[in-house]
Write a structure and sequence with these properties.
The structure is a single chain. By secondary structure, the protein is α+β, with helices and mostly antiparallel strands. The protein contains 12 helices and 15 strands. A 5-stranded mixed sheet has the order 13-12-11-14-15, with helices on one face. Strands 4-1-7-8 form a 4-stranded mixed sheet. The relative contact order is 0.09.
């Protein structure tokens, strides 16, 4: 019996290595003569191999797990050209990040380049500015950065819709979870999309979960406690309190945001959708801004078409809301029940929609 168990154990132990036996072949060109080129494993974020460019060329070959998300990166550069190990050789021009290979990898490369056009242009512009210039144009640069992030998130959502039956969405999973919430991971698994069991999908979900710090954070200690009232002025200078809306059957979402916060602005369409769905059923929203400049705050309210009450003491991170609710990052929010108890925090994307659906439907 022991011998049979031992043989079975050896067979099982051998299976993963057999499954990982798909060969890869990467040939490339680069004008950085003498520079190192790295072959990266996107799952571990470590270099699998490296070599020095000679005669403007480089190459890699070996084995890796089937469909592993890999990339090529040049020494001193942050840009990586991604591809999947699908058994088809790839040829990469590091100078312009173009790739020749399987149809899927060629589409992935085109998407990757298109997705990063706005950010590349923005960061190239910023890199040429002096510290004095950055400070002088801080407000307009913040708005421009917001637009870049909003565009990238919209692009990721588009990829998840149009390429759902390929592996390509994996490369955009972080942006997708950032916008749709980590709950979207369970939906993808339930739907059994082709990339549902890919380890990189879980990695992307876990990284965003850590970034958002939903659980295990001291901020979550507020859940189950009575809310702390705040009093600040609206854009017209009239003073308002959170307590004005709490009670009388109202469920109140206190949304902590700022005009300069890209993720806040990206989340606002989701909050607006929730407001439109449930306002008539007793759902209210109060926006508490961490802005310092009133014109930027007022302009953002108009741009984002937020119909709910907005208040701010215009003190930035010195806002009275920060110590009251231990806010060290935005976007953030709390959901208060009709009795004034906080029943949820950091509800974004589908997490907010699912919570409100349980309450009102």
């Amino acid at each position: 019996m022991k011998k049979v168990i031992l043989i079975a154990a050896l067979v099982v132990a051998a299976m993963p290595s057999m499954a990982q036996g798909l060969k890869y072949s990467v040939n490339g060109t680069y004008t950085g003569e003498g520079k190192k080129i790295y072959l990266m494993d996107q799952l571990t974020e470590k270099a699998i191999d490296s070599m020095v460019v000679a005669g403007g060329k480089f190459s890699f070959s070996g084995t890796a797990p089937k469909d592993a998300l890999m990339a090529v990166m040049a020494e001193g550069k942050t840009w990586q050209t991604p591809f999947f190990n699908d058994g088809t050789p790839v040829a990469i021009n590091v100078n312009d990040s173009t790739l020749t290979g399987s149809p899927m990898n060629e589409r992935l490369t085109r998407y990757d380049i298109e997705s990063n056009i706005p950010s590349r242009a923005f960061y190239e512009k910023v890199s040429k500015m002096t510290e004095e210039q950055l400070q002088a144009h801080l407000e307009e640069l913040s708005e421009e950065n917001n637009k870049v992030m909003t565009a990238q998130i919209a692009f990721a959502n588009k990829i998840f819709k149009e390429e759902r039956q390929s592996l390509i969405p994996l490369a955009f999973a972080q942006l997708y979870f950032f916008d749709n919430g980590i709950e979207a991971y369970d939906e993808l698994v339930k739907e059994q999309v082709p990339f549902a069991s890919h380890p990189y999908l879980k990695k992307a979900k876990d990284e965003i979960a850590e970034l958002l710090k939903h659980n295990g954070s001291p901020k979550m200690d507020f859940v189950g406690q009575q809310f702390t009232d705040l009093e600040m002025a609206d854009p017209d200078g009239k003073m308002h309190k959170i307590s004005e809306l709490v009670g009388s059957g109202k469920w109140v979402l206190v949304d902590f945001w700022a005009s300069w916060c890209g993720p806040c602005r990206a989340e606002m369409p989701n909050v607006l959708d929730a407001y439109n769905k449930y306002h008539d059923k007793g759902f209210e929203v109060i926006g508490v801004s961490f802005d310092e400049k009133k014109p930027a705050w007022v302009r953002a309210i108009s741009q984002l078409q937020m119909p709910w009450l907005q208040i701010s003491d215009l003190k930035g991170w010195n806002s009275a809301a920060a110590p009251a609710y231990k806010i060290d990052a935005i976007p953030d929010n709390i959901l208060i029940d009709p009795q004034g108890k906080i029943i949820g925090r950091a509800l974004r994307g589908k997490a907010l929609q699912n919570c409100l659906q349980k309450i009102f439907e």
